[in-house]
Amino acid sequence: MLKNIDFKQLIPHLAIVGLFYLLTIAYFSPEFFEKKTIAQDDIVRYEGMSKQTSDYNEKNEESSLWTTSMFGGMPVYLFNAPFPDEPLRTLNAIFKGAFISEKAGHGLFMAMFCFYIGALCFGISWKTAALGAVAFGLSSYNLVLIDVGHITKLWAIAYAPLVLGSMYLVFRQKWFLGFALFALSLTLELRANHYQITFYLIFVCAFYVLTELYFAFQNKNFKPFALAMLLFAGAGILALGANAGRILTTMEYAKHSIRGKAELTPLASEKEKGGGEGLDRDYAFAWSQGIGETFTLLIPNFYGGSNNEKLDRKSEVAQLFRQAGQEMPEQWSYYWGDQPFTNAPIYAGAIVCFLFVLFLLVSENQHKYWLLAGVSITLFFSWGKNFETFNYLMFDYFPAFNKFRAVSMALSLTVLLMALGGTWGLKTVFEQSFSEKLQKQILIAFGLTGGLSLLFALVGSGLLSFQTLSDSQQQMPQALIDAMIADRKSMLRLDAFRSFLLVGLFVGVLYFFLKKRISETLAFTLLLALITFDLWGIGKRYLNASDFQAGVQQAVHAPTPADDKILKDKDLHYRVFALANPFNDAQTSYYHRSVGGYFAAKMRRYQELIERQLDKQRSMIIDNLQKREPVDFEKLTILNMLDAKYIVFGESEAEMVENPKALGAAWFVSKIRTVQTPD
Known about the structure:
Number of helices: 27
Structural class: mainly alpha
Shape: globular
Strand order of the largest sheet: 7-8-9
Radius of gyration: 27 Å
Helix content: 55-70%
Strand content: under 5%
């Protein structure tokens, strides 16, 4: 069999994989050469959540599926269950870059590598596929996911192009290869265990299937389509079977989580829920992308960037601080969009936007229809409450839609589909000879992207408000608000010019190549350099060398003096209540059994206890401490029941009080009272 392989054909692919390694190592050089790491918030939380069970599992042959370190006790099979899937773990590690699979930078390699293979499945040449892979991998959303530690989400996004590419192989009647790759990619997609991304991907796949069905009927060639559907069904069964443990436990837990049905009457402060179960509507749509904010796909600073922008010393805000004789802060929140906050704008790339528009103009096959439909539906999802006619209907009636929150993440698939469409558009252009029609199509695409960028650069400051309600709510001086607005206008203007120039340069290189003024190798090098420069430059604004630190793991988990004192208590059972942010804090769980904790899908019963009782008792304690009064432990009935022996409000020993009324591990009930409702 090896005799039939032309190893010379593998050389370009190996070179491209080498390029992906080089880009990953270069971007994450502090991690590879200086032994520095990123303080990934979600990874830090995960370590706190899972510390107790991880320690137990190391010492015991039988693994634990329960932790007492969070929320008074909860199952751990959603985030720390030892499923027996070693072969899949090995395959997953290969896609993550093998020897770099344990590095934070593996996410960048994985996104590029999976996109590259997916693009090759679509029949795209290795050079063009490499351009698309770099564009997709370096998109700002992927890099920010690495920065904050949303790794399972990035894995699910990375495997999506493999799923789509394998579907193409099946529809093109490459039955065995398509079936095998679809079964593998879908298995790994489900194994990533981020079902919200998979849920959105299903809509994209459905549009793809419907498009193929339409053309099957039109061409009166239904038999290959029917066989393709049978293969998809078979591969789907295999993928579901391989992930049955994760899926079944998730389904079991979901009924008891805040995604499940509520037993209690909603509080007066609670908004309408969808169908009596699932998430609260306001909670589900809190992170809704503004419709106008969609322009950040083309111009990153269209809406002020992020809530943590590096403050330029020449900015109006910086000058205002200097005039007031105050120290200038290193970062400033310029974001003025609809979301509560954001770590970075979702930037697809000005060149990617141009290529996607060009794809819609030059492509004459059916694939532009499902790709355009996929981009549209994911945009609609990301707008959330800003497109309530559609999204509230989906929330109330479409199965499982009300189980998910932070809908703006749907834009991750928007970026993927735009990069895939753009790559396909470039393939179509390269396969054509230069003509007046093609020249016109390129100019139209340039006008709709580069021209629009130039328009915003010239007159954008007069079209937008550059102000958000929170500016006035924070009671800022008017002079500071005016300075912020001036800086926001400047940020938009500079980035709009940047996008215009990048698209213009890309079109210039494309033109000279199509006119045969430059060689294919030079054109590929220049196009790759422009795409890399575009995405790399924006990515470095939000994930750069300053985010890497030595000894991060040891620093974030170092015990405080308060921890050390509590750990001297050798009682078999007690809990700790951290006042600062108890129900979004997993650090307490790293060392102690916590009344609080962190988990995105809390148990509904415990969440109801938090909302109706624990929040009130926390406020009582804070009020006592602020007034320098003794804490009235007798009134902390629920905390006492939960055995909250230690109440911590700082890091020092003095910032901790011992609760003498904690009831201990068990107690006798003096009286039973029968009530009529769960309330």
